[in-house]
Design a protein that fits this description.
This protein is about 65% helix and about 5% strand. With about 525 residues, the protein is mainly alpha-helical.
Length: about 525
């Protein structure tokens, strides 16, 4: 194979894995993000960028509401780009994911170009191949959110900085011109861009480019402050953003006994799962060597870059303990460090083809296994989308609807895809005047002997909705109950529950699932 064909292979591998399940509904773990950013993008197109003043509105409304609900935890650049993709391709699940997939693919190309700057052609190829085989890169890289956008601008900024500092003076000005727009756009993508710029300090200080470092920090901080001012004007203060920061930093994880050890074990476990055990160990070996060299004051430009990339990922997970504990994708910003550090270690075995082949084959099959598992998590929740779709058929366009507190229906997708604002209400607190419908849903067959459900059945007319797993009742709050339905539904439900209980007795958990449940329980994790 020629050099170009060899480089083409990782691009094909990455393209295959990152597009898996591209048109699946936005359900399953972390689907809230997919739906919230997509309804913001929908509203940009529906209500107009000028009318909304670029404010991220999450209200489901045919016109600009008098008192819109905002989601101002993050800058809005991602949703603006997603709105553009919706405008071009239509509002499809795959169009939403395509937004981040293209950005992730661009980041992969930048990983190669930066690797070429740092260590030449062979190192760049090793980095490219490793990155294409990281489960975190393909799976989190297609998750709708700011992370792929931030990583793209972070890598672009690093590439421009390396080009500006390493090339001749004649070539520097061209790259310098693009550094600042990249930082501005990265900061308008999300807050981590600010501490990415800070993480470049070791390299720029070593290169004695103090003015460049200072001007970059000023650019990032000024952009962030201007957006904070914008939030304060739109939302009459920063209280919502402050509570978001506190919830992600000082949440439930800090209440756990020995929480630092549980938190560290969780992050380590996710490294082994989403970067694979072999690549993780290769990276840790390099990290140990890197710290040893720094303690011995053996510095080099490359080591300062690698140190900065590690600092970037470390700041992100440690600044928000609750966020990084509850969300696996928060390790996403470690991808550049993991890629380059493991590639540096593998270079030592560049002439041992057996070891290289073993590492890459293991990485490929490990990625296949993790990909199947994570895609399966989404497919296992499609029934929630089915229930939401069936319920929406009974609702008026943009109708506000109440649901039960433990609703099994995916209310996020009912909000975004079917454009209904949702209130979570106890059955005793619903008002016939405020709502036309109340949806009561369960993960299996609903128990009609439950007093809450009986109260609704006896009071209102309803329609029972089924799916492959759960079921729901949509109650028509303007219509009185047809009481003869109660006995029929009770008998049918008791019969169905008896069958399900018999199946549950016979069902055996797989070893993988048993271990998974045990680890989640031991570490108090919402998800691995």
């Amino acid at each position: 194979m020629t050099g170009k064909q060899v480089i083409f292979l990782p691009l094909v591998i990455f393209s295959f894995f990152i597009t898996r399940g591209i048109n699946l509904p936005y359900v399953g773990p972390n689907a809230f993000n997919f739906n919230i950013y997509s309804i913001i993008a929908h509203n940009y197109n529906k209500l107009g960028l000028i009318s909304t003043k670029l404010a991220p509105i999450v209200s489901a409304s045919p016109a600009l509401p008098q008192h819109p609900v905002y989601y101002l935890h993050h800058p809005p650049l991602f949703s603006v780009i997603e709105a553009l993709f919706f405008r071009i391709f239509g509002e499809h699940f795959w169009a939403g994911r395509l937004t981040v997939i293209i950005l992730s693919f661009a980041s992969l190309v930048l990983i190669y170009l930066i690797g070429y700057r740092l260590g030449g052609k062979k190192f760049a190829f090793f980095s490219l191949l490793i990155a294409s085989l990281l489960p975190a890169f393909s799976m989190f890289g297609r998750m709708i959110g700011q992370e792929p956008l931030v990583l793209f601008f972070a890598l672009l900024t690093l590439f421009l900085v390396l080009s500006n500092t390493e090339l001749s003076k004649k070539s520097r000005k061209t790259y310098l011109f693009f550094i600042y727009p990249s930082i501005i756009l990265g900061t308008l993508s999300d807050w981590p861009m600010v501490y990415f710029v800070l993480s470049l300090a070791p390299y720029l200080i070593y290169k004695k480019r103090f003015k460049l470092l200072l001007s970059m920090l000023i650019t990032a901080i000024t952009t962030a402050l201007l957006f904070l001012l914008y939030i304060a004007l739109v939302n009459s203060g920063l209280s919502d953003l402050q509570s978001s920061f506190i919830n992600r930093s000082l949440g439930e994880v800090l209440k756990l006994q020995y929480w630092p050890f549980i938190w560290a074990a969780t992050i380590l476990l996710r490294f082994f799962v989403y970067f694979n055990p072999v690549i993780t160990l290769l990276s840790f070996f390099f990290l140990f060597k890197l710290f040893s060299q720094i303690r011995s004051k053996h510095f080099s430009p490359k080591n300062m870059v690698y140190l900065g990339l590690f600092i970037f990922g470390f700041i992100h997970v440690s600044l928000y303990p609750e966020g990084s504990f509850g969300h696996p994708y928060w390790i996403y910003y470690f991808i550049p460090f993991i890629t380059y550090s493991s590639a540096m270690t593998l270079l030592k075995f560049s002439k041992n083809y057996f070891i290289l082949l073993a590492v890459f084959l293991f990485s490929f099959f490990f990625l296949l296994r993790v990909e199947k598992w994570k895609t399966g998590e989404i497919k296992a929740n499609i029934w929630r989308y089915d229930l939401a779709q069936k319920a929406s058929n009974y609702l008026l366009p943009y109708e506000k609807v109440a649901v039960n507190e433990n609703s099994s229906m995916d209310i996020d997708i009912l909000h975004y895809k079917f454009l209904h604002d949702i209130d979570v209400k106890d059955n005793n607190s619903i008002s016939d005047k405020k709502y036309r419908h109340y949806i009561y849903s369960c993960t299996t067959s609903c128990n009609v002997r439950d007093k809450n459900l009986q109260y609704l059945i006896l009071r209102y007319d309803y329609k029972k909705l089924g799916s492959s797993q759960g079921e729901a009742y949509i109650f028509f709050l303007k219509e009185p109950a047809i009481k003869s339905k109660l006995d029929k539904i009770r008998n049918a439900s008791d019969e169905k529950n008896a069958v399900k209980e018999a199946l549950i007795v016979r069902e055996r958990e797989s070893i993988f699932k048993t271990i998974y449940i045990y680890i989640k329980s031991f570490l108090h994790l919402p998800q691995i």
